[in-house]
Amino acid sequence: MALPLEDYAIIGDTRTAALVGRDGSIDWLCLPRFDSGAVFAALLDRESAGRWLLAPQGGIRRVERRYLPGTVVLETVFETDDGTVRIVDGMPVHGRYPSVARLVQGVHGRVPMRMQLVLRFDYGSIVPWVSSADGTLRAIAGPDAVVLVAGVDTHGRDVDGVRTTEATFAVDEGEQVAFSLGWFPSNEQPPDDLDPVAGIVNTEIWWREWTARSTYDGNWGDLVQRSVLTLKTLTYAPTGGIVAAPTTSLPELLGGVRNWDYRYCWLRDATFTLYALMTAGYLQEAIEWRDWLLRAVAGDPADLQIMYGPAGERRLTELEVPWLSGYCGSRPVRIGNAASQQFQLDVYGEMMDALHQTRRHGIDPDPAAWDLEEVLMEYLESAWRQPDEGIWEVRGPRRHFTHSKVMAWVAFDRAVHAIERFHLDGPIDRWRAMRDEIHDQVCAHGYDAERKSFVQYYGSKNLDASLLMLPLVGFLPANDDRIVGTITAVERELVHDGFVARYETSDEGEVDGLPSGEGAFLPCSFWLADCLSMVGRTHDALALFERLRGVANDVGLFAEEYDPVEKRLVGNFPQAFTHVSLVNTACNLSGKTGPAMHRARHHEPGT
What is the pLDDT of residues 480-502, one digit of tens each? Predict the structure, then answer.
């Protein structure tokens, strides 16, 4: 059985990432990329689906974890009946191929240790051919191969029919035993750069140099730094794409079916991500993200997807993996994401806003960017009138979702401002008229005067947390009575146990076509804090932010959602959108003009 999500930490090399449990077991690792097949998939099943355990043999009294300052190198200290031992885990950044380095360091006494390595390719379905030569172990199956370099003798063993590689050894105070596990294509020779000690040292240096570039000077610096480090860890360095999470099928409700593959790059996160990177001083990463966006969406605007693979891949066919039992029995386990083929209007607004923000922040414009934006706008002139699947990727019928129409308004608004401020060429009068038409339509059909609130979709009485975005993108001022009423309604009807639900689900699946039940979507709670600060309720905004801080795990990581009843993180983990939202809200609440106010001022002349 996998651990609670709170008990995992991430290590990564900006190509892929692993989840390391509090018990010393790596239960999730996809090789060689974030979206490749998992070689360790115990997170979604049992140990037999693949894991790498390195832990004391005796009774454990206490476990403490931390990241080495300014890095994604994890240190876990076990206090046992026999003494104290430290395990340092990291993924070297500069290797030709991905690898994991693990150091076992004796701190006090003599601690007996055990290692158990269960290698399975393709999400636990393929048992590799294992051989040993020259003190190294190789495992090969199809195109994939891994090699283990161990500082102790290992041996093969069948445990309840499961073939494993094991080792038992002891470490004394001051002694160190090193391990390295590296992936390579099976048609090549194993990599020769698997020195685990040098790998850890060089990785620590690399991360600290990267962290030193941060210019963030607001409040909650440690938490913001960890969030930005997590965002960098989820970056696919060869292209600049940023995946939403390193995991798939971690449920939004334990035992439920809302289990999706998040190992892809969402356009919806574009503007928030840019702000988080720029707020922290990482302009080069912002440029690389902008460039990834431009490459990914190039082509016919009618074919624009809401998400792409780490290198911009478009075919993300959704499949179910029946041989895995799922996290806490949550089935189905999915790879790929069918929502990639949905029509969602809001991504056009996100693209236009993101590219506009790069210009506003002085990032050198890509000469081809405006040509692409013009084509997108020409398509949107007619497409905005269509119903869509909305921000939450519902599997129910298409509707005229209010948030979607607002983001179409954002697209035209940013296009108009681009022409006005940066003197670009375009049909400004036509786009102004289109912007006004959308604004009038949303106010007429997306607002319910009886409820004194905007609603989820035209003609609905339902609320939706995405409506909190209206003041954040400048659709209406935060002090507009209709916005104040919407915030009040969200607080009254969507806040449960102090956290914001996306919308009210139902057993009938009226809106999303799925059974009811999920955790609170954490970014929505950050949006509420932003809105509260914008209407002058700073005390309430700070109280909500502190509540959100409290659900991070012991090493500062957040999942997609939080179950306030079970008091557990749920959904894919760690979630980039949550960490991005934290960075932006921390900046908004730090007493300066943060992203919320900055982004909302587009309606003001000269901004």
Answer: 999 999 999 999 999 999 999 99
Q: Any idea where the domains of the chain sit in the sequence?
A: 5-190, 235-603
Half-sphere exposure of 564 (CA within 13 A, CB side): 14
143-158 pLDDT, tens digit each: 999 999 999 999 999 8
* Contact criterion met (CB below 8 Å) for 576 and 245: yes
Q: How many CB atoms lie within 10 A of CB 399?
A: 18
As a whole-number percent, the residues of the chain with pLDDT over 70 amount to: 99
Whole-angstrom Cα distance, residue 548 to residue 584?
13
Per-residue pLDDT, 162 = 84
The DSSP secondary structure of 479-546, one letter per residue, reads TSHHHHHHHHHHHHHTEETTEE-SS---TT-TTTSS-S---EEHHHHHHHHHHHHHTT-HHHHHHHHH
Q: Do 154 and 138 form a contact (C-beta atoms < 8 A)?
A: no
Q: Is the pLDDT score of 606 beyond 60?
A: no
Under CATH, to which class is 235-603 assigned?
A: mainly alpha
In one letter, which amino acid is 273?
T
How much helix, strand and coil, in percent to the nearest 5, is found in the chain? 35, 25, 40
Structure tokens at 576: 């980039």
What is the topology classification, in CATH, of domain 5-190? Answer: Beta-galactosidase; Chain A, domain 5 (2.70.98)
